[in-house]
Amino acid sequence: MTVTTQAVEELSPVKRRTPLADTWENLRRSWGGMIGLTLIVFHVLLALSSPYIVPQDPQLMDAPARNEAPSTEHLFGTDKLGRDMFSRSLVGGRVALVVTMLGTALAMTWGGLTGILLGFLGGKTDEYVMRVVDALLAIPWLLVLLLIISILGTNPWVQTLTFGFTYGYTAIRVARAATLDYVTHEFVLAARARGERKRTIVLKELLPNVLDVLLVDGAMTWSWMLLGFSSLSFLGFGVTPPTPDWGFMIAKNREILAIQPWAVFGPAIMLSTLIIGINLFSDALAKALGLDRSQGAPV
Amino acid sequence: MSKNLIEVENLSIGYYNKGGKLVHVLKNVSLSIKPGETLGLVGESGCGKSTLGQAMMGYLRLGSQVMEGSILFSGKDMFGLSTRDLESIRGNKIALIPQNAGEALTPTMRVGKQIIETLELKTNVSGAATKNRMIELLGQVRLPHPEVMAERYPHELSGGQQQRVVVAMALAGQPDMLVLDEPTTGLDVTTQAHILELLRDIVAELGTAMMYISHDLGVIARVSDRVALMYAGEIVEDASAAEIFKSPAHPYARGLLASIPRLELAGIPNSMPGQPPIPGSLPGCSFTPRCPFATEICSSEPPELKMILQTPHLVRCHNWEKVVATDFSQELKDVYHIVEHKAQDVSAIELSDVEITYHQPNMIDRLRRTPEPPATVSDITLDIKRGETLALVGESGSGKSTIVRTISGLLPAKSGVIQFENCDLTVNVDKRTMDLCKKVQLIFQNPDASLNPRHTVAEIIDQPLKLYFPKMTRDERRARQIELLERVRLDGRYRLRYPGQMSGGEKQRVAIARAFAAEPDVVLCDEVTSALDVSVQAAVLDLLADLQQERNTTYIFIAHDLAVVRAIADRVAVLYQGRLCEVGTVDEIYSPPYHPYTETLMGAVLVPDPDTEPKLLASDTPELAPPAKGCAFQRRCPKFINDLCDEVTPPWQYPQDEDGHKIRCHIPINELLVV
């Protein structure tokens, strides 16, 4: 009798916005986030365009003009081989940026997916694999990097793979922890009861929910990886000279710090602005995604 | 006439949203509570009742502000006081009892210590006297062996016991008023009834005033002297409990009361159409779009809260005279309707001797031959007919969810057979064929958890379609999604919504649509309405009944609310500690002879009628594991006879014939007939 008496539910008024638009909206309100993003975009654009806009050839050695103080011709002065430090500082981040960006993507992909899978599977597999991960995490990362790179050489592709691999362990931990929050949720049970395959559950049900955590962790990993790359470079395992690189430049010009401080300051400023930018951005991203509730969740 | 203890005057609370627009949470709320009086504050989720409760404690949520009005507690303005003064009022004069007692207690501190801490902070009791007072308080909330209980950590107590400790803590400062925010929601019916009796007694004994916030009209009817009904941030009716339940004068009150399933009436009640608006978003009365009495004036002019008749009865309605003129008790009788459907005399699922255990013996257990603990679920034999609704009823821990999870393949059975068509369902879901998975679908209690928050409705419904109908094209699936949404009475445009953009009822409909997308033969419903508001609950029950008719689907329906079960089930199986107590049709179960446990459950149900008293039989101490032998209910049974109950598993008794109603008890049927 009443079967037909019920009308179709009216569409309740809701402003339709995708989660992405929501996040952007929150991000735009954050000063730190916008400064961070500007710094990152600046560095990426610079990496793309620097070979075409540098005032001088960064590898040109002008022997008479060695260890020169900053002047209108050489904004940051020259190093002991007479190379223009300003030009070198501008191009010095290219390899580092490419290697760490690809490395981060790789680390987050393999580490993230492994972590989600372990969190979902649980039980003995999870137990054993996590102990191996713990053991790997216990080895100082610089040692691992040095070991692998000294065996395989300083080819940028090798470096990308090495960074991607070693920084993936932390991603496993983070992704697994985030997944554990969701595996007990009923939508995962519902998917299992439907008979969905494990792959579908990991990729379609769990990944979208831990993606925000992975994004923030990825941004953090990127900044750590940049520091890591620069440290390697500082130790002479980064790029092959004469390709300019910030870490290597700082290492080489340390000796003339007293007479030509700009040869160190230039690359140092470039490196630190990028890392600060990434950190500001990842902080703001965490807040925009609602992961960091210390400031009160966005209403 | 005594002076009011607390007076809320014309209070409006709101916040500015991201667009800088003012959003009201409370709008022109006025109410007062006299010393020793209990006011029940009722309303559906989102109506602002918790905000009002917190405001009475002088607390505002981050970002909200008082737009207008005041709260005077013993003549002092709560929002004008300094932090220090507020601190001295909170706990000493007015105390809060929150919903989740488990979260209100510090997990790493013994409960006695926590009460002592409150005593030291809020009273001038000191030295040895504090310990005595603490024991006295625990005794006052009727915890058995207060000395022993005081030494326990919160996790060592049951939910009901935790709630008692929280009540004891609230009483520590000897407050003049208690604000209780849904303190029994989430507890078992029997535990809830016991806590409510305790609160009633304490209030009567100590003369404390209470503001009791709840969405449950049965609970409100039991504890309140006076009831205030909230809708969309406004008080719409304020009257004595007797008045409001017998002759409500606001159309919303009538609609709400008429949408509750009742223990004594078979059939599904009427549901209210629509949903509440954002407070203050409509120019006239907020209830106009859902109101059967609405006239022209309602959509333009907001009504005032005004006194009607001679008794203190306040109503915010233009047409209250018309409302009062219609006979409510007659109206109530007409709204309950039974959805006719036929169960076939063919078995859909047959469970025989099913036993399920969570116990996994480890190596040491095996070496030492430790005897296995009794199985969580044991000796379940049930025959569920095609097209029938079988309800599994029992308190938490009765094994009802365990049985359903086993049928759905999420949990293996230890022994026994679950026959479905030609397959045995005791195997895990990984080992089932896709066709078998398709035929058995599951709907969960909480749609917030069962729908992936990152998927749109379209993606959610698409999952079973992709999985079970791989040949369907994209367009066919799209058409099917819209068709399914319309079948659950949602607009096709909902496809693009995320779960976070829908109300609880809408989300549960999407979950139902997802289950029915598979075109299942059996649908397992795990407490599907218990997370929903009453006005929505009836609509969801109605929907389920209609969907069942279309394809003669079999339902296994888990519920703890006996009134809901009465509304939807054909047959009922009562479970205690994973053992069957009683099986029969709805009519057989809801009338004597009862199994002592069924009788206990029925007695604890709170009905929305202030004159009906619950009958509390068994103690509310829950058991954690079934007894090793004898009757499962032996330790709590009010009719316990002798060693027989302890030692021997009771036999099935049949009041009529062997196929029908059966009760598992040692007490003879004719004695069980006497209630």
Automatic annotation (TrEMBL), chain A:
<dbReference type="InterPro" id="IPR025966">
    <property type="entry name" value="OppC_N"/>
</dbReference>
<dbReference type="InterPro" id="IPR000515">
    <property type="entry name" value="MetI-like"/>
</dbReference>
<dbReference type="Pfam" id="PF12911">
    <property type="entry name" value="OppC_N"/>
</dbReference>
<dbReference type="InterPro" id="IPR035906">
    <property type="entry name" value="MetI-like_sf"/>
</dbReference>
<feature type="transmembrane region" description="Helical">
    <location>
        <begin position="262"/>
        <end position="281"/>
    </location>
</feature>
<feature type="transmembrane region" description="Helical">
    <location>
        <begin position="132"/>
        <end position="153"/>
    </location>
</feature>
<keyword id="KW-1003">Cell membrane</keyword>
<feature type="domain" description="ABC transmembrane type-1">
    <location>
        <begin position="93"/>
        <end position="282"/>
    </location>
</feature>
<dbReference type="GO" id="GO:0055085">
    <property type="term" value="P:transmembrane transport"/>
</dbReference>
<feature type="transmembrane region" description="Helical">
    <location>
        <begin position="222"/>
        <end position="241"/>
    </location>
</feature>
<dbReference type="InterPro" id="IPR050366">
    <property type="entry name" value="BP-dependent_transpt_permease"/>
</dbReference>
<comment type="similarity">
    <text>Belongs to the binding-protein-dependent transport system permease family.</text>
</comment>
<keyword id="KW-0472">Membrane</keyword>
<keyword id="KW-1133">Transmembrane helix</keyword>
<keyword id="KW-0812">Transmembrane</keyword>
<protein>
    <submittedName>
        <fullName>ABC transporter permease</fullName>
    </submittedName>
</protein>
<dbReference type="Pfam" id="PF00528">
    <property type="entry name" value="BPD_transp_1"/>
</dbReference>
<feature type="transmembrane region" description="Helical">
    <location>
        <begin position="34"/>
        <end position="54"/>
    </location>
</feature>
<dbReference type="GO" id="GO:0005886">
    <property type="term" value="C:plasma membrane"/>
</dbReference>
<keyword id="KW-0813">Transport</keyword>
<feature type="transmembrane region" description="Helical">
    <location>
        <begin position="95"/>
        <end position="120"/>
    </location>
</feature>
From TrEMBL, chain B:
<comment type="similarity">
    <text>Belongs to the ABC transporter superfamily.</text>
</comment>
<keyword id="KW-0472">Membrane</keyword>
<dbReference type="InterPro" id="IPR003593">
    <property type="entry name" value="AAA+_ATPase"/>
</dbReference>
<feature type="domain" description="ABC transporter">
    <location>
        <begin position="6"/>
        <end position="257"/>
    </location>
</feature>
<keyword id="KW-0813">Transport</keyword>
<feature type="domain" description="ABC transporter">
    <location>
        <begin position="349"/>
        <end position="602"/>
    </location>
</feature>
<dbReference type="GO" id="GO:0015833">
    <property type="term" value="P:peptide transport"/>
</dbReference>
<dbReference type="GO" id="GO:0005886">
    <property type="term" value="C:plasma membrane"/>
</dbReference>
<dbReference type="InterPro" id="IPR013563">
    <property type="entry name" value="Oligopep_ABC_C"/>
</dbReference>
<dbReference type="GO" id="GO:0005524">
    <property type="term" value="F:ATP binding"/>
</dbReference>
<dbReference type="InterPro" id="IPR027417">
    <property type="entry name" value="P-loop_NTPase"/>
</dbReference>
<dbReference type="GO" id="GO:0016887">
    <property type="term" value="F:ATP hydrolysis activity"/>
</dbReference>
<dbReference type="InterPro" id="IPR050388">
    <property type="entry name" value="ABC_Ni/Peptide_Import"/>
</dbReference>
<dbReference type="InterPro" id="IPR003439">
    <property type="entry name" value="ABC_transporter-like_ATP-bd"/>
</dbReference>
<dbReference type="Pfam" id="PF00005">
    <property type="entry name" value="ABC_tran"/>
</dbReference>
<keyword id="KW-1003">Cell membrane</keyword>
<keyword id="KW-0067">ATP-binding</keyword>
<dbReference type="InterPro" id="IPR017871">
    <property type="entry name" value="ABC_transporter-like_CS"/>
</dbReference>
<protein>
    <submittedName>
        <fullName>ABC transporter ATP-binding protein</fullName>
    </submittedName>
</protein>
<dbReference type="Pfam" id="PF08352">
    <property type="entry name" value="oligo_HPY"/>
</dbReference>
<keyword id="KW-0547">Nucleotide-binding</keyword>
